[in-house]
Amino acid sequence: RTYATASDPNYVNIVEVGPRDGLQNETAVIPPALKAELITRLGRAGMNTIEAGSFVSPKWVPQMEGTDEVLRQMEHLQGVHYPVLVPNMKGLDALLALLSTENPPVSRPQHAAPPLPPAQPLTDEIALFTAATDAFCQANTNCTVAESLARLAPVAARARASGLRVRGYVSVVVVCPYTGRVRAEEVRDVARALLDMGCYEVSLGDTVGAGTPADIRALLETVMGGAQGVGPAQLAGHFHDTYGAGVANMFAALELGLRTFDASVGGLGGCPYSPGATGNVATEDVLYALRGHGGGAGGGRRYSAAGDLDALAEIGAWISGRLGRRNESRAGKAIMARKERERLEKERER
Amino acid sequence: MFSHRTAARVLCPRLRRGAISPRTYATASDPNYVNIVEVGPRDGLQNENAVIPPALKAELITRLGRAGMKMIEAGSFVSPKWVPQMEGTDEVLRQMEHLQGVHYPVLVPNMKGLDALLALLSTENPPVSRPQHAAPPLPPAPPLTDEIALFTAATDAFCQANTNCTVAESLARLAPVAARARASGLRVRGYVSVVVVCPYTGRVRAEEVRDVARALLDMGCYEVSLGDTVGAGTPADIRALLETVMGGAQGVGPAQLAVRMLVGSGHFHDTYGAGVANMFAALELGLRTFDASVGGLGGCPYSPGATGNVATEDVLYALRGHGGGAGGARRYSAAGDLDALAEIGAWISGRLGRRNESRAGKAIMAWKK
Questions:
Q1: What distances in angstroms separate CA B65 from CA A312, B37, B69, B104, B294, one per listed residue?
Q2: Do B54 and B85 touch, CB atoms closer than 8 A?
Q3: C-alpha distances out from residue A8 to A12, A236, B236, Å
Q4: pLDDT of the residue at B139
Q5: Residue of A253, A198, A258, A266 lying closest to A234 (CA atoms)
Q6: Is A3 exposed, middle or buried (0-12, 13-18, 19+ CB in 10 A)?
Q7: Beta-carbon contacts below 8 Å between A and B
Q8: pLDDT attached to residue B236
Q9: Which of A41, A3, A53, A83 is closest to A317 using CA atoms?
Q10: Residue A236: helix, strand or coil by DSSP?
Q11: Residues B198, B209: contact at Cβ < 8 Å?
Q12: Which of B277, B279, B362 sits opposite A277 (nearest CB)?
């Protein structure tokens, strides 16, 4: 497992979105127990932020049914965050109710043994979603961006008052499938609004994966520029690999100072707008590209990030098998192929 | 929940009903013009399981030419005992369409291969004598090819495994081949394998790559393509490699270099997904030529499902951006009709019975459905 200090300017945070954004965009629906196992494995593979699920109606997103079960069954590691998507106040109600039943206040008589440290909360973080264009917002949540922000602000406030962190997500930051190229100023304004309502960070999503490094550069220069600009420490890149530019886009963002990127083990999560096309960039590919061959020995300057690449490659292969879909991680497949070669060589030696 | 048709119009503006897909023209004097060398028909096919007949290879090359590619590897004069996929290269050269101004390099491993090529060229282009009173002679047919490709490697171990000699011996054998080819009017392009990681010896010293590239240029290559054969490089590696290769008194200029990304050839199938990112690292250092393969052709014959070459469609998409470059920040330009290339990638993948490994290609084809 690679350990890196957060004070290292070349340390990169990877937010693992496979169990939520990934699974949500796969056709197969897997039971809560399997989702919980995925999250447990990812935690043991060293991921520090792992999306755990979504409190959204199963009518809309059947893949996210049973998120409460997942939260109960999965392993919770100290220091790891497990954000849960909350679309509205109703979803937050459900989450807070769940959290209070799982962590009831305990009163102990004076003479009893010192109380056990409180069990880890099922989660300490929620995710709020909006978009950069009204058209996309309308299609997904039946309201404009302004209405969406107005609805989310009280949700953010209540979540924070309950001790939860709030992460914001903006969809379609480069190209909107309904209206085309998106103005970077609009992305900046939405990101600013999310931060103002209490999000600690805003993840900028190239939802259709149409962005290229030049687009990312132009987008970030605007989002981070001027009096209303947002600092790089408050931004994350959520780049889809639909056109093959996901990893290249990450490097463009790294050069502009971003240090947090969303990725999905095995490249889980196809693109709903290009059936059959890839979606999320793969965690294994991201980690490999950041650290380089051999985990960073020799060669030029490298970035560091948490995560056991071999273990993640195993997880990507395993979950792909369970979902009956192709492993979309190139580095993951390469590592599994290498492990297979090594295994065969060992057998030959016997 | 949303209209696929609306989304399609936006995501693929060229697909608007009635619109003709334009070919992108770019001037070579544009500092942001990028040359793509299409290696699908040679390096791509060479590393695919299926063996396809010369007629199909010729059709692939013809389609690629019509899709605007300016350099298209056409085949290899290597013994079919070693590379069955390259059998019939002479037939391919005869059957394929030759477009004016397009180069069709052919891999030549040694003097014997050059002999065979020169023999073929002389039979196809016999000198013609015409009586004075006859109509003015037709312009000579374009030669079957005007370019050869010579290969070597950055490490002795890799060279030994592939050509049974050291790098120094390899260079010594290739120098006369280059000289004879040039004397016969052919251009010579040089290729160096394993420039980042060698599957036998590990990390490769950039100084060795520089020295081999220098030797290839000195023997007459107009350009040297640096191949990350196992695809293990990341942007930091490419940067470090190029800074050394281009640095110092023995440094090679960026205009004489190309990068071949993510190649998974022979039994090396470790391709880690950083190809396009690596290209941008090289672009920033001044390189303007990259090798790519339509549909990402060129998997590993020994490891089904492993990817190989970076896909031409993905490279073109990443360079030009969405909508072919309208709006947004500074972009690169390159020749090539992306829609047509996506069609070719899908078509040849179907004919080979393998998965289309181009992400941009698949995304474009998904919208066309």
A1: 42, 12, 5, 10, 12
A2: no
A3: 9, 17, 17
A4: 65
A5: A258
A6: exposed
A7: 174
A8: 94
A9: A41
A10: strand
A11: no
A12: B362
Q: What's the distance, Cα to Cα, between the start and end of chain A in Å?
A: 30
Other beta carbons within 10 Å of B201: 14
Looking at the complex, does the CB of residue B297 fall below 8 Å from at least one CB of chain A?
A: no
Read off the pLDDT of residues A61-90 as tens digits, 9 standing for 90 and up.
888 889 999 999 999 999 999 999 999 999
Give, as one character, the DSSP assignment of residue B88: T
pLDDT for the residue numbered B178? 98
pLDDT of res. B28: 55
> Is the four-CA dihedral B344, A330, A220, A141 of positive or negative sign?
positive
Please list every residue in chain B whose beta carbon sits closer than 8 Å to the beta carbon of residue A276: 362, 366
**What is the signed CA dihedral for B94, B100, B106, B112, rounded to 10 degrees?**
70
Residue ranges for chain A with pLDDT beneath 50: 1-4
Strands (E), B123-255: 147-153, 187-193, 197-198, 202-203, 223-227
- pLDDT tens-place string over residues A246-275: 999 999 999 999 999 999 999 999 887 877
Is A235 an interface residue toward B (CB < 8 Å)?
no
* ipTM of the predicted assembly exceeds 0.90: no
- In chain B the domains, ranked by start, together with CATH numbers, are 33-123+141-323+331-368 (3.20.20.70)
- What's CA A93's distance to the chain center, in Å? 22
* Contact of B266 with B305, CB cutoff 8 Å: no
For residue B230, give the chain A residue with the closest CA.
A334
Q: Distance (Å, rounded) from C-alpha A269 to C-alpha A209?
A: 12
Q: Which residues from chain B sit within 8 angstroms of residue A344, using beta carbons?
A: none
pLDDT of residue B308: 79
Alpha carbon of residue A153 to chain centroid: 21
Buried b (16+ CB within 10 A) or exposed e, B129-166: eeeeeeeeeeeeeeebbbbbbbbbbbbbbbbbebbeeb
Asked if the C-beta of A242 comes within 8 angstroms of chain B's C-beta atoms, the answer is yes
Name the closest residue on chain B to residue A292, using Cα atoms.
B234
**Residues in chain B with pLDDT < 70?**
1-28, 125-140, 262-270, 299-307, 324-330
Cβ–Cβ under 8 Å, residues B192 and B209: yes
Q: How far apart are CA B275 and CA A248, in angstroms?
A: 9
Contact in structure between B281 and B244 (CB atoms under 8 Å): no
Q: Taking the model in full, what pTM does it have?
A: 0.89
Closest CA to B63 of B348, B362, B369: B348
Contact B167, B159 (CB under 8 A): yes
| A289, B273 contact by CB (below 8 A) | yes
Distance CA A48, CA A36 (A): 16
pLDDT of residue B80: 82
